Amino acid sequence: MRKYVIAGNWKMNNTPAEAAALIEEMKPLVADAKCDVVLCVPFVDIAASVEAAKGSNIKIGAENVHFKASGAYTGEISAEMLTACGVEYVVIGHSERRQYFGETDQTVNLRTLAALNAGLKAIVCVGETLEQRELGYTETLLKYQTKMALTNVTEEQLKNVIIAYEPVWAIGTGVTATDDQADEGNGFVRAAVAEMFGEKAAEEITVQYGGSMNAKNAEGLLAKPNVDGGLIGGASLKAEDFSVVVHGVK
After folding, report:
1. Which of 51, 141, 203, 248 is 20 to 30 A distant from 16 in Cα terms?
2. Is residue 166 flagged as an active site residue?
């Protein structure tokens, strides 16, 4: 039985006070969720979010992590710093990090290893651009990104990895992959895990779909056999919308 996880990715939104207020609003709405519920928040919101989420089923995550434990990396945050703040999850390799901040498949792997070695659960993002999809490279690219991210990850550590398939052409665009496209992409990711770790590990790993999943389309996407939850952007900034997505897990 695979674990379903709905994770909100707030991106660069909400002050600490706004974060606490939103979580307070969300708590009763998701209290009876049939999946794990995670909110990945900006660094400055972590303390307020951890405090607000106490006693609830909401877990707090971060949106990025550095691959070194310490050093001359101005503005960066280490995995140990995150765990010390009460963070349990971290998003790694989001397409916006790749697009705007020079993230590569190699640095995604290093960040993933750093997170896992510190005891964090890693939500690792993979996904193709529209041009790559139109050229027929979706399967090749998703398998490559997945395998690169999981290089040197042990079978035991894999239990703390979630992979989020986020087609770049569907992030923040309002365009969503069809239910079948999402299922197919997640299936390619699962196949890559099978090639590295075997069928059992592939069947057990949680593979989310991200990319404009929202209150209107979540139920159909989550009904697909390879979709084990979602990494939610805009819809995670509104308590009611986020709760509808959470309750799309039946």
Report:
1. 248
2. yes
